[in-house]
Structure formats: structure tokens, C-alpha cells
Design goal:
heterodimer, A: mainly alpha, B: mainly alpha, MetI-like fold, 2 domains, two-stranded antiparallel sheet, 14 helices, 66% helix
Chain lengths: 302, 324
């Protein structure tokens, strides 16, 4: 497999040192081209959403704009009740993320700091649970939700079905698998001497958990909170199957209503879709580092 | 993406080496009754939630797959043994197309976006300028929900108003292609959209893995006269085994779970010809007016068994080291 150019390539290879200006340029052209290509769908959606429907109807979508405005965004915001759906998303996402982190921290603490016999089994049970396809659970879950009563102040359907609590519950149960896996790996790196010292001082286990281990896990929590917020906010399937009334759905699932309602007006739909993506984009750009490390601490073990 | 305290390369503080797990001398742990109560509650509640909301339904799906039920009255559940499976395999027209499409989905994702993401990661893992910008652009689709990705591609594929047909007619072609309506094309159209998202995911995972890669190995390979491709194939790639396994699992699981994007691009409930997938068939059978719970569950079990093969591989690979 030795090609004539092998020598020059090899000289480029030692990382962080070789410059090789020609290769560098070639690489930049390639990467910039790919990056641009990757942005095209998104930019096209932005362009579509900024044009009034009348303009595109008359001149076609592939045309120079006569005018650009945020009109579709204000229309989608006002006509389809987006503020309401956003609020639903907040009501689901915030408790679900907090619950997931608390639950998985407790399990991770247990499996990583104590030598009980069933630790590995427990950890596997949680990790595997997160990997099950949602469709495998949905039929019995749906039935289960119809059987579980809730008091009126929690749900006006009086059932777990058709209530935000049901969505929060399944998110917590399902997502705690991933977070437990990540947090237990993280907690194993905290020297045991720290909690042993606390034990000698007579600190009970709950204090070790809340006052020693949890604060030390702050970076992992930041990463997981970012990641889980986006995942849970973006989720589409659970509310679709477990919430009957359209107006209780979070914004991602409600988008489907919008599409049904305005399917003839792609400009408005583009605006609506982009609007639902704004919170995740903001979170991503603000917390990019946390987001990516959250994705990768799960994979970095080995 | 500079180093953070939680990058995979440095899971602990640098000064503290990973201690080998010493088992026997760990006895002086005296847990008082309060401690035991706390631990029981701390593990009990999450475990109960997991078992009740995740594992119980998974097992119940298995049970229901041997029954016939219209989903209304619990008393109407009747045990019919393997009939559902026999029906599905022999007498349910969308089943085999769905299996075929799931396999195509897996092969496509494994052969195009996954290697491409690895290639991009390898290109980006050098000190070159703008690398952050390139990474962000390619990773951005991953931040969007699959539903939003679906809507974005909808306005590209739309036969009348979409970008693709607009470009084709601007290029002088008189073909009017219904990308999502044509049963021979629509799966591929959806795969492009899904690959658009998947590439960035793989790229970021691999990039994180490469950061933990010992550069000395690469230098040694270069000194031995290996070229770029040889270095990658013979040195870097094999050394990245843990990340490769994660990527394999992610790819398999994403292919099996594919739902949202097809749901949106296919226009909602009801599998469209050419776009049948197991996940959609399950939903069709349980959500529609005439629910065939037994059918849906049998389909779910087929999906479950395939998934468990992937999950099992992952668990064995991940936990084998610790079990010793």
C-alpha cells in the first residue's frame, strides 16, 4: 500500500507540528465545503421562513426575495398558540431533568461507592433500560397510564394518561439509565479516601452524598443537565402516544398540529419549526462545551 | 472544544491514578440503621420507577404478544400462543418490507454517514484554524429534534414548493419528482435527512475519542514510514476500540429506533408505501382506531430481540472489565 506520495504524507502526520501549507489549504476547502453543504437545509428553512407566503406563491420558492420579514414568526406565534405549547414544554422538561439527575445520582452513588453484590446487575438494568426502543414499551405503558388514577389537582383527566406527570415520569425512568451510567463512571474517579475520612468523622451516608459527592460531581451534572434538557425538550414520541389532548402537548409534538393546520403554507411551518428549535440552539451555543462533554463522557469509558 | 474536566481522556484528576479495585480489605464500613434506610430509599425509588415504567412494560409486551386483544376491555385478552408471530411472518404484508427497510436503514447508516463522520473527525483532530466553526456547522443538526429535522427536509423535498425540485427545474429538467410520495425513492430521501443528522453525532463521538489518543503512537507510526491512511487503519482505528463499540451501538440503535423523522416526513400515523419500518408498524397497530394489541406487541418483541442483541454486546463489552 505504499504510494509515491507516502513520504510527504508521513511528514505531515506528526500531529500539531507539520504545516504543509498546500495540504492545509486543500483540507480547508474540503471542510468548508462540507460545512456549508451541511448548513444548506437550515439556511433554506431560514430563508423560506423569512419570506411572505404571497411572495413565494407568486414567484416560486427559488426566487430572489421582494421582501423579507418576520411576519411568519409572529403569525405562527400568535395563531397557533405557540406560547402555550412552550409553557407545556417547560412544565415537562424542568422537573424531568431535575428528577432524572437526582435519581441517577442516587443510584450512581450506590453502585460506585459501596461494594454490594448486585451493583453490576443494577447498573446494567439501568443502562439497558435506556437502550430499549420506546416502541417496545408503548402498548403496556399506554394501558398502565389508563389504570393509574391521579388527584384532580394533578390531572384534570384524573389519570396518569393525558397528564404532564405521566410524561415526566417516563422521561425520568427512561433517561436515568444514561445518566446513571455516566455519573457512576464519574463518581468512581472521586477518591474513596474523601468519603472514608468523612465516615471516620462520623458523618452519616446521606451527608456524604449531599455534602461531599454531589458537589464534586458538579461538572458532570452541568454536562448531563444540558444534554438531557435538549433531549427531553426535543422528545416527540411519548407525548404523541401518551397525551390525547393536543393542547397539553409540548411544543415539539404540537408542531405536528401546526403542520396539519397550515400544510399549504410551508413558510409558516418553517417559521414554526425554527421557533421550536430556538431554545435548543440557544442552550447549545451557550453551553456547547457541557453539551459535547455530556455526549462523550458516556462514550469515553474503556 | 478545549479540555474539560470530564473529557474521556482524563476521567479523574491527573494526580490520582485509577486505583486497582481492591476487594477484600473493604470491610470497616459500618452502616448504621439510618444509613441503611437512606440507601434503601435512595436506590429503592429510582429502581421502582425503572422497573415499573420501563421493564414491566417491556415484559408485558412480551406477554401480550401471545394474546389477541382489541385494547379495550382487559377481560377480552385471549391467549393464542404463537399465532401473532405466525400471522406477522406469513400473512402481514407490510412486515417484510419493514424488516427490509430497517436493514437498509442500518446498512446505509453504517456504510455512509458513520464512516464519513469518522473521516471528518480525523480531519478535524488537528490544530487547524476554524475547526470550531466546521464542527459546529456539521454538528448543528444533532441539536435539532428529529421532528424539526423532518419539517426542515419537508420544505426541501416538497414536490411543488421544495428546494430540490426548484433546483432541478432551474437546471432545465422537466421532471417533477415526488420525493416523498414515490415508494421507490422516499426511503432514500429520508435516509439522506437522517444521515445529515447522524454524521455530526459520530463526528463528535469520534473526536472525543481521538483526544484521548496517545499522539506518540501516531509519531511512531510516522517514523516507521506509515502514510496517513495506514496510520489511521492500522494504528489509530484499532486503538479506538471502546469508541468504536459505542459508535456501533449508537448506529444500530438509531437504525432500529428510527421513528420521528419518518413519522413527520410520511405525514403522520399510517405507514406510507416504501417507508414501512418496524417502529411505525407497532405504532399503527396500537394507536389506530382498531388496535391490534397482540400484533403490535409481537412486532415490538421482534424489535426488542434485535435490540437486545446490540444492547447485550454493549453491556458485555462495557462491564466485562469491572466484573473481574
Amino acid at each position: 500500500m505504499t504510494r509515491p506520495g507516502a513520504g510527504t504524507t508521513a511528514r505531515d502526520e506528526p500531529p500539531r507540528t507539520g504545516k504543509g501549507p498546500r495540504r492545509q489549504t486543500g483540507r480547508h476547502v474540503l471542510l468548508a465545503g462540507i460545512a456549508l453543504l451541511w448548513l444548506v437545509p437550515l439556511l433554506w428553512a431560514v430563508y423560506t421562513s423569512l419570506r411572505p407566503y404571497s411572495d413565494t406563491a407568486k414567484h416560486g420558492y427559488l426566487s430572489w426575495p421582494r421582501s423579507l420579514s418576520l411576519g411568519n414568526f409572529t403569525d405562527a406565534w400568535q395563531q397557533s398558540g405557540m406560547p402555550h405549547f412552550f409553557w407545556n414544554s417547560v412544565l415537562i422538561t424542568v422537573p424531568a431533568v431535575l428528577g432524572t439527575l437526582l435519581f441517577s445520582a442516587a443510584v450512581a452513588f450506590f453502585v460506585s461507592r459501596f461494594d454490594f453484590r448486585w451493583n453490576i446487575v443494577l447498573l446494567m438494568l439501568f443502562t439497558a433500560g435506556n437502550l430499549l426502543p420506546a416502541q417496545v414499551l408503548i402498548t403496556p405503558l399506554y394501558r398502565l397510564y389508563l389504570l393509574i388514577p391521579l388527584p384532580p389537582w394533578m390531572s384534570d383527566s384524573l389519570l396518569l394518561y393525558n397528564s404532564v406527570w405521566g410524561i415526566i415520569a417516563i422521561h425520568i425512568a427512561y433517561q436515568s439509565g444514561f445518566c446513571t451510567f455516566v455519573l457512576s463512571n464519574y463518581m468512581k474517579t472521586i477518591p474513596k479516601e474523601i468519603s472514608e475520612a468523612a465516615l471516620v468523622d462520623g458523618a452519616p451516608v446521606w451527608r456524604q452524598f449531599f455534602q461531599i459527592v454531589l458537589p464534586l460531581c458538579r461538572p458532570a451534572f452541568a454536562a448531563l443537565a444540558t444534554l438531557e434538557s435538549i433531549w427531553i425538550y426535543n422528545d416527540f414520541f411519548w407525548p404523541l402516544a401518551l397525551i390525547e389532548t393536543g393542547d397539553k402537548r409540548p411544543v415539539t409534538s404540537a408542531l405536528a398540529n401546526l403542520q396539519g393546520q397550515y400544510f399549504t403554507n410551508p413558510n409558516l411551518i418553517a417559521a414554526g419549526a425554527l421557533m421550536t428549535a430556538i431554545p435548543t440552539l440557544l442552550v447549545y451555543f451557550a453551553l456547547q462545551r457541557q453539551f459535547i462533554s455530556g455526549l462523550t463522557i458516556g462514550s469515553g469509558k474503556g | 472544544m478545549s479540555t474539560t474536566p470530564v473529557t474521556p481522556a482524563a476521567p479523574g484528576t491527573p494526580g490520582v491514578p485509577q486505583r486497582p479495585r481492591t476487594r477484600p480489605p473493604r470491610r470497616p464500613r459500618r452502616l448504621g440503621p439510618g444509613d441503611r434506610l437512606f440507601l434503601t430509599v435512595a436506590i429503592g425509588i429510582p429502581l421502582a420507577a425503572l422497573l415499573f415504567f420501563v421493564w414491566l412494560p417491556a415484559l408485558a409486551s412480551l406477554g401480550l404478544s401471545f394474546t389477541t386483544w382489541d385494547g379495550i376491555d382487559l377481560a377480552d385478552i385471549h391467549w393464542i400462543g404463537l399465532d401473532n408471530y405466525q400471522q406477522i411472518f406469513t400473512n402481514y404484508p407490510p412486515f417484510w418490507p419493514a424488516v427490509r427497510h430497517n436493514v437498509i436503514w442500518l446498512l446505509f447508516t453504517a456504510l455512509l454517514p458513520t464512516p464519513f463522520g469518522i473521516f471528518l473527525a480525523y480531519q478535524l483532530d488537528r490544530k487547524i484554524r476554524f475547526t470550531r466553526i466546521y464542527q459546529t456547522a456539521i454538528f448543528l443538526p444533532m441539536v435539532l429534534s428529529l421532528a424539526v429535522v423532518g419539517f426542515i427536509w419537508e420544505i426541501i423535498y416538497n414536490p411543488d414548493t421544495g428546494l430540490l425540485n426548484g433546483l432541478l427545474s432551474a437546471a432545465g429538467s422537466s421532471h417533477h419528482i415526488d420525493w416523498l410520495g414515490n415508494a421507490d425513492l422516499n426511503l432514500w430521501a429520508v435516509l439522506v435527512a437522517s444521515g445529515w443528522r447522524h454524521t455530526g453525532y459520530i463526528m463528535i463521538l469520534y473526536l472525543a475519542g481521538l483526544k484521548g489518543f496517545d499522539p506518540a503512537l501516531k509519531e511512531a507510526a510516522a517514523l516507521d514510514g506509515a502514510n496517513g491512511r495506514q496510520t489511521f487503519l492500522r494504528v489509530v482505528f484499532p486503538a479506538m476500540k471502546p469508541v468504536n463499540i459505542i459508535i456501533l451501538v449508537v448506529t444500530v440503535m438509531e437504525s432500529l429506533r428510527a421513528f420521528d423523522i419518518v413519522y413527520v416526513l410520511g405525514g403522520g400515523v399510517g405507514s406510507k408505501p416504501g417507508m414501512e419500518l418496524l417502529s411505525l408498524l407497532i405504532t399503527d397497530n396500537i394507536i389506530g382506531e382498531s388496535s391490534h394489541i397482540g400484533y403490535g406487541s409481537a412486532l415490538a418483541v421482534v424489535l426488542l430481540l434485535v435490540s437486545l442483541a446490540a444492547i447485550g454486546t454493549f453491556l458485555v463489552q462495557t462491564f466485562r472489565k469491572e466484573d473481574r
